[in-house]
Amino acid sequence: PVDAAPFPNSYTVSELRNHIDRVLRSQLAGDVWVRGVVASEIKRYAWGSYFDLSDEDDRQNLHFSVEARSHQLALVEAKLKQLGVADRLEKDLPVFFLVQVGLSVKYTVNVRLTLVDILPEYTQSRIRNQREITLDRLKEEGILDNQKKLRLPGLLDHIGIITSSQGTSVQDIMAALLPFEKAYNFYFIDSRMEGARAVESVMRSIDFLELGVGVTLDAIVVARGGGSEQSLAVFNDYRLCRRICLATVPVLTAIGHEKDLSAAELCSHLTPTPSTPSGIGKFLHDRALALRQQLSGVVSNLISYVARVREGEMARIRGFARNIPVMARQALKFRERVFVDMVRRFHQSASFLVLDRERQVAEKLRSVSLRNRKELDFQHRRLSEMSAGLLSRSRMAARRRKLELGKTISRLDFLKRSRQNRMQRAELSLLGGNILNLARKKMRDEEKGLDGHLRLTQASAPDTILKKGFTMTLGRDGRVIKTDGAFRSVGRARLKFFDGVSAIVREEES
What we know:
Helix content is 53%, strand content 15%. It is α/β, with parallel strands linked by helices and 510 residues long. Strand 3 and strand 4 form a beta hairpin. The two termini are 41 Å apart.
């Protein structure tokens, strides 16, 4: 062995580590409260877990390693879950920890924080404060109420749905929409709805629905089922809320449970009551039902109007048909009087002309010689024959005019209006029958859809699933264990089969 006496005072590596640890514990006596953000995924083991804790200011590239024993981690996560903040510790979660400060004992010597307790109210206030910050920024930009200014069409047809295919939001919407699920054309976009990449995923989905579907959408629905405040915190993100405000299509939101209220819901065009996927389905159901009732009222008013017009037209036709014979007789009498007056005036004119010629002839007879008397007699006879011919032609013309008037009256069709009325009545009866047939066909289609959903519901029943070869793991309280973390927290459990229940014991990994 080398004698160390001639050398300066020194420590071995383990002695230096222990000395620094004693100094830290003496200067930071007891436990210390520290604020930060979970910066890594939680590495979980049977005896404990590890994760990194970074500064609240993301510009500070600093972090501590945190160690959490299994019972301490279970206590912390129970407090978060009891307050409804988060189901468990997750990355990007703002936290207020009570820790012990010390040095690690393995590998590289560094300062390590040992988790003791948590203030879940701090995490809750940080998440809710983010919502207020986002709303204030949007209000300062003057775009917070942009969506409220858009008009939702009266007849909704093409609707885009943004949600995760792993959740039950689509099933909840369709279940509440029955039996009007076929009244709309839906365009589903699978998107991440929680986690670090959820904001960009939802924004890309809105961009695609606005520009890339190929049809003009009437509305976009952003749906997400219930969860902890941490899992719903992405809907308080400023970038996502700003994208919703600047959307040119009305955005309807249904996020979380009815008690949850995010910034995205406050800046969207409409959030139904309740503000859940089932609530948006009920909103669309009520809208389709109101439209159908309005359409039925319009059809009824149209049928009543056509019936009133028909009755009025029939009354007018009947009145006109009654007046036609009287009008025809009056017109015939008027024309006959005119013709008689014309013949009388013509006869008088002819008589005056004959008398005037006779006078002239008499005067000339007195003035001419006897040798011209024969010629004058000949002219007188010709004049008399001309007068008789004129009178005969006038009488023939009168008889011919009277015959033409009789033929005109005989050709009048007084039943034409009646035939047209019968044709219109047949067309109305045919239209009413077609409407009734369409209504019956629609009812048969709706009944088939209800039968299909009933069979689907029966196929999804737990007993039916168990018959297919699945089992359910039950805890001591008889509730289903859904996660690996929950299964690790119990020592004994039960397996439920279709035909019975068996007890199992969980073995700890060494």
